[in-house]
Design a protein that fits this description.
Strand order of the largest sheet of chain A: 2-3-4-7-6-5
Distance between the termini of chain A: 28 Å
Structural class of chain A: alpha+beta
Radius of gyration of chain A: 21 Å
Largest sheet of chain A: 6 strands, antiparallel, barrel
Number of helices of chain A: 5
Largest interface: A-B, 88 and 87 residues
Strand content of chain A: 35-45%
CATH architecture of chain A: Roll
CATH class of chain A: Mainly Beta
Number of domains of chain A: 1
CATH superfamily of chain A: Electron Transport, Fmn-binding Protein, Chain A
Oligomer: homodimer
Order of helices and strands of chain A: EHEEEHEEHHEEEEH
Amino acid sequence: MSEETGAPSERTTLKRGANRAVYASDDVKAVLDAGYVAHVGVSTAQGIIVLPMAYGRTEDTLYLHGSAANAMLRAGSDTDICVTVTLVDGLVVARSAFHNSMNYRSVVVRGHARKVTEDVEILDALKIITDHVADNWDSRREATDKELKATLVIALPLTEASAKIRDGGPVDDEADLGGPEWAGVIPLTESWGEPIPIDDLVEGTPVPQPLLDLQD
Amino acid sequence: MSEETGAPSERTTLKRGANRAVYASDDVKAVLDAGYVAHVGVSTAQGIIVLPMAYGRTEDTLYLHGSAANAMLRAGSDTDICVTVTLVDGLVVARSAFHNSMNYRSVVVRGHARKVTEDVEILDALKIITDHVADNWDSRREATDKELKATLVIALPLTEASAKIRDGGPVDDEADLGGPEWAGVIPLTESWGEPIPIDDLVEGTPVPQPLLDLQD
């Protein structure tokens, strides 16, 4: 009903700082690909802060970008962070509220954040983040040097990433099975609507196909 | 286009530890009520961890509960935490990828987590958390003492809570307005499906009305 995959949860067993890329598991990649926003936790002089940020991934690296990133990394350009992506798939209603739950898919990535400084990697990362939800980097106007310089991109290795997925019905105590209460699951789904063009759109400008494809 | 409400973001200006309840702003309450899962960040001996947890709220308190809670609070029963709830409402596509964004509603609550120890408050909090998505506490079988003792509930004051909401279209540089690229918003919506009963349901058991009402 609930399974965990990827790196071991006992963090101390991991060789931190070992310079070896570990490809993320299929579950980790699938959940990251399905999500839209990452919740990024970082320790600051004012305490822990968790903020939503846009993201994208390669086979071994998670890239983050957001207006919040700058403030979050003010404490230093390299910091330990935790990045969590969660999709809620349903409300699980058991006979006992104690066993109520959610169906969900979640990935937790922990590690040492690296500020991306090379122009080539910044450009690559921005394309990856922009194309994460739907490919649209190629249909935008070309990025300027000024924009690239104003952009903070953070890289996090997917070495220490694990996925947790819960699905299926409620798991009640044996004594409650067949009881008089209703029990089951209310599924939750997300759907993309029709693109809404901006007011000053040049008449006849087509919506890029990947943005239309979101509705499938 | 983007607005922030609630407590000031300059955390150090807040009187921490002041024993005075501050009611959360309407925006904070509305976003908390609309969300399903909170991302809870806490500092542990093994570093920062951010985990998804179920939650509920009163006028001045956020209650958290989850199987993960125990491990997260192992470092001590009272800890500074950060709780963030985010709803994604759309993909904002600008002429320049640099100005791409998301429409979203987000609440960040920071503060000192308190382990709830009184039976009466634990029971109240569990009802609040259980009823957060849809009222169903009253249609479950009564909680046992054993269940209450096995439950870890955390309370966080809503004193230091702020909401951030972005909506509307992309905000491009003036030079890009009227450009040849498509620009606009792809809205994202969530919807609850039809309740799926568990296999051993007694025939004819009705679905509680609040669970049916989710589909409205």
